[in-house]
Amino acid sequence: MLKKVLIANRGEIAVRIARACRELGVRSVAIYTEADRYSLHVKKADEAYFVGPDPLQGYLNPHQLVNLAVETGCDALHPGYGFLSENPELAEICERRGVKFIGPRAQVIQSMGDKTEARKCAERAGVPVTPGTQDNLKDVDEALEIASKIGYPIMLKATSGGGGRGIRRCNDEKELAQNYQRVISEATKAFGRADVFLEKCIVNPRHIEVQILADSHGNTVHLFERDCSIQRRNQKLIELAPSPQLNDEQRHYIGDLAVSVAKEAGYENAGTVEFLLDSDGSFYFMEMNTRVQVEHTITEEITGIDIVCEQIRIASGLPLSVQQETITYTGFAAQFRINAEDPKNGFLPSFGRISRYYSPGGPGVRTDAAIYTGYTIPPHYDSMCAKLVVWARNWEELLPRCMRALDDMQIYGIQTTRQYYKEILQHPEFQSGDFNTSFVEEHPELTRYSTKRRPEFLAAAIAAAIAAQSGM
Questions:
Q1: Eight-state DSSP code of residue 329
Q2: Which pTM was predicted?
Q3: Short-list 80, 21, 148, CA closest to 294
Q4: Helices (H) and strands (E) in the chain, counts
Q5: What is the chain's alpha carbon radius of gyration, rounded to the nearest angstrom?
Q6: Which of 226, 232, 291, 366 is catalytic?
């Protein structure tokens, strides 16, 4: 087992990793900038080191991070998500300096981070991909020519990066010509590369992703799927596991596809293979995220498998603690990204001091957060300040439990997306489990909070839960 891990991240994921290290008897080392001096992850780790006054640079300098790992006697580095988590240079420097990178090899990060190379990998594995370009586009003329053959609408995408950036839907030639330079500019600023490609746009798809684990002993498994269709501008808001939109046949099929991609890529550690589900039931490979996902929590809730602990075990050279035939899931889980944003004001960021914070609890409720009463949320980072995770035995029980947990969670001093999620919960389309990635855009009325709470929703949900229990 590893002895000491440098956590090259901040916020709730750093707290999450520190907790996993504690359970495994591994010492943890946190890093912080001036803006994070009083953050919870600094308090939770065994050791903490200042990495500079700049709020971002300390988390983005791979050489400084690995130097600190070596100086503090760490034999491994966990990148978390965001920042440098999918930067092959960090993984390569770790390998060169004798520090175990808790993630896949640099070469795998490089190839799967390049979306055109990832598509080729999926094709070699026999996994369906959407019609599109095999390589990066040379210029706008080539884009227009290929788009005319594929047919509109198309998606113009940055080859590198992720997080919903560098992506534009183009419905005709005019929009493609207008967006081409915009996407190149976005890609260059965000990812340092001007490469773009295009693919056929699957209209109103479901966004389904599969969690995989792979060790150095040739074992690769999937932990079933998550539904990430509730999203805004390609940023996920609510995630569900398993997907209420899949049957068991589809569930096993997409799980096998994900394992095939991981094996073809020579993947090791935790990763996520993302798919689009068309209205006709067809699955298409979209991309692979070579890190732990924000929403790994709900997979842990339905399977009982600690994904971060598995990451550390894998990096220690140990085999997976589970085999595919022993992995099962129970119930449904939902994760709500509690963002410091004002949905009633165009989701404007709302940073500042939290005057009071009450964390929800009770059966089936988990909160992953790095906030507390008196904490000041800095304006330099992502707006997510907490993750509310709710589990229940079935879909009918999950909805009222989610509502109760959202009611329990109280955050004063800033605006958050908590109330907005309560409105989504009460919408018939969400309750039916029949929704797609256009849900948020098609229901702008939910940001107006026209009703604080609909008593008939809870009455119906409770009645359904009682009926489900009586039939067990």
A1: -
A2: 0.91
A3: 80
A4: 17, 22
A5: 22
A6: 291
Domain 131-200 top-level CATH class: alpha beta
Neighbours of 175 (CB within 10 A): 17
Residue 197's beta-bridge partner residues? Answer: 157
Q: CA quadruple 150, 151, 157, 162: dihedral positive or negative?
A: negative
Strands 283-289 and 269-277: antiparallel
For CA atoms 263, 265, 266, 268, the dihedral sign is: negative
Does the annotation count 291 as an active-site position? yes
206-470 is a CATH 3.90.780.10 domain: no
Peptide bond into 349 cis (omega under 30): no
- pLDDT one-digit tens code per residue, 150-203: 999 999 999 886 666 788 999 999 999 999 999 998 888 888 888 999 999 999
Q: Which two tokens stand for residue 459?
A: 């009455």
**Which residue ranges does the chain devote to CATH 3.30.470.20?**
206-470
Report residue 51: phi and psi, to 5°.
-120, 20
Share of the chain above pLDDT 90, in %: 89
DSSP for 31-83, please give it: EE-GGGTT-HHHHHSSEEEE--SSTTHHHH-HHHHHHHHHHTT-SEEE--SST
State which amino acid sits at residue 126. Answer: G
Please check whether residue 108 is in contact with residue 269, taking contact to mean a CB–CB distance below 8 angstroms. no
CA 49 to chain centre: 27
What are 167's strand-pairing partners?
157
Q: Is the peptide bond before 244 cis (omega within 30 degrees of 0)?
A: no
